[in-house]
Amino acid sequence: KNEVEQSPQNLTAQEGEFITINCSYSVGISALHWLQQHPGGGIVSLFMLSSGKKKHGRLIATINIQEKHSSLHITASHPRDSAVYICAVPNYGGSQGNLIFGKGTKLSVKP
Amino acid sequence: EPEVTQTPSHQVTQMGQEVILRCVPISNHLYFYWYRQILGQKVEFLVSFYNNEISEKSEIFDDQFSVERPDGSNFTLKIRSTKLEDSAMYFCASRSGGAGKLQPQHFGDGTRLSIL
């Protein structure tokens, strides 16, 4: 079974700052998810990546499969980025199947 | 963009009562999942469903729980006799089944279940 660790648990930033959230996991996988959970509770998929780097607007996700580590970066952070960011990986490795979730990183961006 | 929809958004039920949570996955998706999140805790896997049967379930998914895909569009989670500890946010997710391509799971907005 996979285990997922995220850091930091809580993060407060000033608007405009560069944000990094880290995720490590124990069982080799082929793909990893980054998710965003809004204050109301809904979950949105941000990225699913298997190698290298993906970019979407101000969000960048990187993954190092060999080191079992991924990072989510937010450039020029904004108060609307305030949410919980969650890393999730397939429970038994590979790229699909049921997911194991990290505890999440609660990000608060102050104006 | 197609969405996974869940109803109701909030369900309040007396302990011991049966509850059915409903989900409409994205129409051409083949794999379906239920997850739950107890307040303040991480999201946990409950059950996955493919080809009209359960493909995997967690230890949380005991005999009180069941899932059904009664028609071509709905995917339901039933809790037979609710307990206080069933209070949580329940998320439905679905993904497509094409081979050789990464297919993300798409999540609904969740049903907040409160057991009194």
Task: Report what the structure shows.
The complex is a heterodimer of chains A (about 110) and B (about 120). Chain A is an all-beta fold. Chain A is about 0% helix and about 55% strand. Chain A is globular and about 40 Å long. Chain B is mainly β and about 120 residues long. In chain B, strands 2, 4, 5, 6, 9, 10 and 11 form a seven-stranded mixed sheet that branches. The radius of gyration of chain B is 14 Å and the shape is globular. The relative contact order of chain B is 0.34. At the A-B interface, strand 5 and strand 10 of A face strand 4, strand 5, strand 9 and strand 10 of B.
Task: Give the SSE layout.
The complex is a heterodimer of chains A (111) and B (116).
Chain A: E1 4-7, E2 10-14, E3 19-25, E4 32-37, E5 43-49, E6 52-56, E7 59-64, E8 69-74, E9 83-90, E10 99-101, E11 105-110
Parallel strand pairs in A: 2-11
Antiparallel strand pairs in A: 1-3, 3-8, 4-5, 4-9, 6-7, 7-8, 9-10, 9-11
Chain B: E1 5-7, E2 10-13, E3 19-24, E4 31-37, E5 44-50, E6 53-57, E7 65-68, E8 75-79, E9 88-95, E10 106-107, E11 111-115
Parallel strand pairs in B: 2-11
Antiparallel strand pairs in B: 1-3, 3-8, 4-5, 4-9, 5-6, 7-8, 9-10, 9-11
